[in-house]
Amino acid sequence: MASTSLIFDPPEFPQNFPYKAQSYVVAGTAKEGQTPHLRNPVWSELPAPGRTDFKPTTTHEIFEAGLQRSATRMCLGIRPRLAPDAKANTPASNEVKYADHYVWETYEQVNKRKLDLGSAIEGLFRSGKAGGGELPTVGIWSINRPEWQIIDQALAVYSRVTVSLYDTLGPTVVEYVLNHSEASMAFVTQENLPRLIALGPRCPKLRVIVSIDDLSEGATRVAQAWAKEYRLELYTMKQLEVMGAQTRYPVNPPKPHDLATICYTSGTTSVPKGVLLTHYNLTSGVYAFSLGLPWHEGAMLSYLPLSHIYERINELSTFLLGAGIGFFTGDPLRLIEDAQVLKPRFFPCVPRVVNRLALGIQQAAAAPGIRGALVRKALEVKKRNYETTSATTHKFWDALVFRKVQAILGGQVLIMTCGSAPVDPETLTLLRISMGCDVIEGWGMTENCAAGTRIHPKDTTAGGTVGFPHPCNEVKLVDVPSMNYTSKDVPNPRGELCARGPCVFKGYYKDPKNTAEALDSEGWLHSGDIAELDSQGRLKIIDRIKNIMKLSQGEYVALEKIEQTYSSHPLIAQLYVHGDSLQSYLLGVLVPELPTLADLISKTLRVHVAADDVQKLQEYLANPKVQATIQNALNAQAKHHKLKGFECVKKVHVTLEPFTVENDMLTPTFKLRRRDVYARYKKILDDMYKEGAGETTKL
């Protein structure tokens, strides 16, 4: 369809990469209260899409680039589900089973389906059956599967706007997103079809529902009758593809700055915010992700939610390179099995997956006898080799020991990327040397297409940092006086991390207040993350404004809100809740109300202790039964207030020393000095996390 070549061959990082100065300082940009602007040290020219070396400027053209490169090669693949063995009548024979191979659609086949489906959608909009909202929005409520990408590309080629629907944030979120985005049409899996039809009376703009799955004759009859009751049109995706093949409307490809998607992010507010991302935003992120990662053969494994921007950019980057996307079965417990069947070259992941892989390797190293000794020796040699040469492979030890470890993910992984939250540097090193591949960590958010910064794969000292700016944006640190972070801090500048460039979003849909808070008048995105710029030009995330932070599995937690929730319990006089981005749960430091504590101890141990007998109270706090009773009281409080699992304080340290202005743990207005409380109890909190690190896993 494209008249010119859109094929892009990503350049590799140069041999003389400036490891000692990894951020390019833009001359003349230094101002009081902020650092100078910082850009990518190799590709510092902004913007990128549309230049002679990178022509795609829309997601439609990203797919066209892959089509031009790999027309007859694999594009989207699945493991077919096998029919039960009708002859065997055993529990095992009724288990869900999948083929030991992937079945693929080529780029040409996907392109035809995209055009057929897009034409049918165009027909529905032209006829007036769909449309009527402020924007031509269409929802997708589905797990990762080939149809998700086919729908997204069908919408793009006719300049529609994709809206991801998901209910992990609560049962009312789908309804909210449909109404907020004014989506007149939505695609849905059979599993959620009844729930979507039931929303019809509460979603006045919704007029057309499309089942991604085929329906039986009986299910079709029931669903259509129910949908008709709510004045909804119901189709299957296959029906639309047939309609589009029969009546082909001229395509209407988007322009670079047309809106591509409204990506709803959980953020930290009571309702999701609709992040407005244009085609130019997305292609800028794709350009950045692809640099230094030249791979055109094989596939990536799709399992991270496509409703999140990180996976969207990963899969668009795969299209750009003309490679394949193999989708997991939908069962997280089969993820390792899926990887072993697919044998991906590219494996995007999040800290939860990284930590489980690393834990399995650590358990192998801790095994008794010669087996454990071999693993430990192999790790020792490869780590030393990596730290001196940056090599992640070793012919002897990979063949003897790590071949089996690498086979966990199919044995052909070249690149792993990790986003969402920080990962312990030692864990990343362990993964690199055991998996024998590059593991790249970075920083980003929905509002900048997940493409803020990244580390260099050969920088062996980058652990703990998020690296240097991606070439689709420039960054700076802005002073936060209220938290004592400034651009003049010694030895390293510190401040709020801000980004500006072609990957930065256009605002929050129908939300001028939050848009104004996030985007300033010069187009800078204020991330809310506090970063430090080290002596080598690398950024490190060290804090979060407003005491909102992200746990290792990606959940945002508002620490002050959680403290307030617990503090209504009569046992609690003061509470400090602590979270670590490398951990999946929260800890607490609790100052009790002494009369309540005395009563709790008396009832638990059937002894008498006075509220003013501090010495006795302190002694009884060491009793495991007392500790368990206190934790049970906290658990009951969390349950009563319906805190989510990740918002609950899993362990607490009880101290009889109050937080006061005099001991520097309270401000003059009696607010917690969080950094000072943490400094006082750092060792105790660190030890509590170590005590809780007894998790085991099977790989």
UniProtKB/TrEMBL annotation:
Residues 36-55 are annotated as: Disordered. It comes from the Eukaryota. One of its GO terms (molecular function) is ATP binding. Pfam families: AMP-binding. Residues 90-509 form the AMP-dependent synthetase/ligase domain. Keywords: ATP-binding, Ligase, Nucleotide-binding. GO terms for cellular component: endoplasmic reticulum; membrane. SUPFAM superfamilies: Acetyl-CoA synthetase-like. This is Related to Long-chain-fatty-acid--CoA ligase 6.
